[in-house]
Task: structure prediction
Amino acid sequence: MSTPPPDCPLCGGDGGVLVARTPELRAVLVDEPDYPGYVRVIWNAHVAEMSHLSEPERARLLAAVNLAETALRQVLAPDKVNLASLGNQVPHLHWHVIPRFRDDAHFPQPIWTARARDPDPDRLLRCRQALPALQARIARLLRMG
Amino acid sequence: MSTPPPDCPLCGGDGGVLVARTPELRAVLVDEPDYPGYVRVIWNAHVAEMSHLSEPERARLLAAVNLAETALRQVLAPDKVNLASLGNQVPHLHWHVIPRFRDDAHFPQPIWTARARDPDPDRLLRCRQALPALQARIARLLRMG
Result:
């Protein structure tokens, strides 16, 4: 764990709507209107790179990412799941776990590209309505470890 | 393993300059002039999502991604490493392992955004000159498993 800068947003707050927390990591829902169900899995300590973690720590973080992906697939049935650990702006380990749909605002491009369309509002509504079930499932899976 | 579509580019070819191959996966160098040292770690079988793999398979793939990240850091000393498994266009499991530098063409944005600048040519040259060392290190680490 490196010394966190005083302005690190992932040291100073949850980084989203808290879904589940363990002593090492947490899962949050990201407030991104185009992507209901977008989850971040955040390592609690201020660490920049995956290869800075020990092997058991890395395995536990990636297991949590996989549980989030599994919950997304079970609850939302997306066309694809996108996983990414970038951290160029906030070098505090966090994984983006993003449900992607063919009608979404950027498909098939990454969500960081220019917006291509308005998503289907009915599909967005179905995803939003499923968020409580998604949160419950992620929390349950993370508790089960 | 699902049935691959006949046009899957990662079933029909290496997907880059082959650096190392095991029975399950391979590492390739991506031909991307702005990003010398950009590696992809590709699962050989046609599988779409990480959560479709068994736990031991997933662990071996992520270990290879971590070896590639470690080699990148040792040889190129980037300011950040970006990891991503997207697969919206080619739903055949592959991990992007991307060395990022503050002067690169998109920093601090993801590499899929609009190009922001020309990278420092001296730094690009140093990265290009280090590619043989990078390839040798990735191949050695993957052999050691």
Notes: Residues 55-76 of chain A form the longest helix (22 residues). The two ends of chain A are 23 Å apart (CA to CA). Residues 103 and 123 of chain A are 9 Å apart (CA to CA).
